[in-house]
Structure formats: structure tokens, C-alpha cells
Specification:
6-stranded mixed beta sheet, 5-stranded mixed beta sheet, single chain, alpha+beta
Length: 291
């Protein structure tokens, strides 16, 4: 163990910075001494390169502190590319969810401490299993390894509500300002006001019909509460985290045959020995009589 540690320390102190290549491949062995010496030097250099241990420097990993009362990890040291696909930033700093924290620790890109004690990968798995669920993390981990960015769907809905509330507030302020100044009142024709009132009456009628009429629903249709994550493709540069490309549902294998998708962007993740992803859609199969 001491020999391995010594070797890793030495390889870390003296990394291989340059690899000299001979250029064109030699298909035939030459008999002259210069060619033989060139081949031997290249073989020796390759052996040295393969025996060199790849050691990750500690300063290449970020650092965070796990907060059990808030169930998040607060990042204290950020490294390059850490917050591009993971975490969110608010007035309290950069926050990582349990699944993001565990994935970054597994990928050797983050060090997490709790009460100044470093957490192992097993400790991070215990946190994820307690707060999220093992199968949900497996689906998250597989997609994150392929470069996808995942955001909890409830957070996406909250962001959409905030955007809508902000838009409605700004629109209401502009309307109030226009009414106070008296601008635009004389410009609206009478027919536009009448059409708006008629449209409100028609919408109220349809709303009452919708409430009184019998409703038809499928018990297995995916709802917002069933969706776990919004999945963003690697080339999706949406910084607000609202317009996701797919919606991910982690489900049981026995329930997969009964599920129906109400949109082409729904993906089902089934966790058995491996994690598999499926898409389901409503299909009307014609009835056929066989003689």
C-alpha cells in the first residue's frame, strides 16, 4: 500500500506533458541501426506511458458542505464546468440536490463534508436513498453520464409559475398606468369592447358546461405529479431551465404495459438489472375479423 501511494505521489508530481510520435507507421522492419534505434526508443516510451498512473489533482475537484436540515449541499469551491449542468444559484449561494451531489462525488468531481468530516460514496448513496429513492437515482445517473441535463419537474413548474406571475404583474402595471393617464381609451372602438364582452360570456358558458358535463379520463395517464425530471439535450442552451426536451417518469416494470403517454416527449425509465428507457403513445388498433 505504501509503495502504491508513493508511486501515485511521484506520478502526480511529474506528469507526462508531451508524447513524441514517430509519424508514419513502419510496415516493414528496417535493418539499419538508426531505424532499429528509433523503434526501440518508441517502444520504451510507450511502455513508460502505459505504466504511468493517471492521478487527478485535488484542486480539480469542487468542495461542498451537506446541510441535512435543508437536504441540499452548499458549494464552497467551484471548479470549471461544475455548474453548467448541475445545481442552481440563488441568494444563498450555489446549491446541489442530493442526486447531483452523489453523481459528482462518484465522478470524482466533488468533495462533500458534513460537520468537517468527508463523506464517502456510500454515505452519499445513503443520503440519496433516504431522500429520493435508489431507482430514481439510477435513471438520473445514466442520463447524466450521457451528457443530459436533468432538472426536477416540480422546479420547472415553479419556474413557469414565477414567469407567468411576473408577466401578468407587468401587464397589469402597464394597464393601470394606461388607465390612469387616460391614453388609449379613446382609441379603442366600441365594436372591440362589445366583442370582448361577448367572448367573456361565451367562455363562462363553456366553463359551466365543462363543470356540469360528465368527464372521461384515463387512470394511467401521466400527470405532473408523476413526472420526476425534465430532460434537456446537450445542445439545449436554455438558461432559465423551463423548455425541456423530454419529461422523465421512473416507473415499475409491471406498470409499464398499462401506462399511456399523453405527449411525444414522455420517457419511461424502468430499473431492473439495468436502466432501460421507453416511449409509449396512444395507438388505435383497428378490429379485424378472422374467418
Amino acid at each position: 500500500m505504501n509503495e502504491l501511494a508513493t508511486k501515485l505521489i511521484e506520478d502526480n508530481k511529474s506528469p507526462l506533458m508531451k508524447f513524441e510520435n514517430v509519424g508514419s507507421k513502419l510496415f516493414f522492419r528496417c535493418d539499419n541501426e538508426s531505424s532499429l534505434k528509433l523503434v526501440d526508443d518508441q517502444v520504451h516510451h510507450l511502455e513508460k506511458l502505459l505504466s504511468h498512473s493517471r492521478v487527478t489533482r485535488r484542486n480539480a475537484r469542487g468542495q461542498a458542505t451537506w446541510c441535512p436540515e435543508k437536504k441540499v449541499a452548499k458549494v464552497s469551491i467551484v471548479t470549471k464546468g461544475l455548474i453548467q449542468n448541475f445545481g442552481c444559484q440563488n441568494k444563498n449561494g450555489i446549491i446541489l440536490l442530493p442526486e447531483e451531489m452523489c453523481f459528482l462525488v462518484e465522478m470524482n468531481r466533488l468533495e462533500v463534508t458534513q460537520n468537517e468530516i468527508p463523506l464517502s460514496i456510500q454515505d452519499c448513496y445513503d443520503i440519496v436513498t433516504e431522500n429520493l429513492g435508489f431507482n430514481i437515482y439510477r435513471a438520473y445517473r445514466k442520463l447524466a453520464q450521457h451528457g443530459y441535463r436533468l432538472i426536477r419537474y416540480e422546479d420547472i413548474l415553479n419556474k413557469k409559475d414565477q414567469e407567468q406571475y411576473k408577466t401578468e404583474t407587468q401587464s397589469r402595471k402597464r394597464k393601470t398606468t394606461t388607465d390612469e393617464t387616460g391614453e388609449g381609451c379613446s382609441k379603442k372602438p366600441l365594436t372591440e369592447t362589445v366583442n370582448r364582452l361577448q367572448l367573456e360570456v361565451i367562455n363562462n358558458i363553456f366553463e359551466r358546461i365543462k363543470q356540469a358535463a360528465p368527464s372521461q379520463s384515463s387512470p394511467h395517464e401521466s400527470e405532473a405529479r408523476d413526472i420526476h425530471y425534465g430532460v434537456f439535450l446537450p445542445n439545449n442552451k436554455c438558461k432559465r431551465g423551463i423548455n425541456c426536451d423530454y419529461r422523465l417518469i421512473v416507473c415499475n416494470e409491471n406498470l409499464l404495459e398499462q401506462l399511456q403517454s399523453d405527449g411525444p416527449d414522455i420517457i419511461y425509465a424502468v430499473c431492473t438489472d439495468d436502466v432501460s428507457f421507453y416511449q409509449a403513445a396512444k395507438v388505435n388498433i383497428p378490429f379485424c375479423d378472422y374467418i
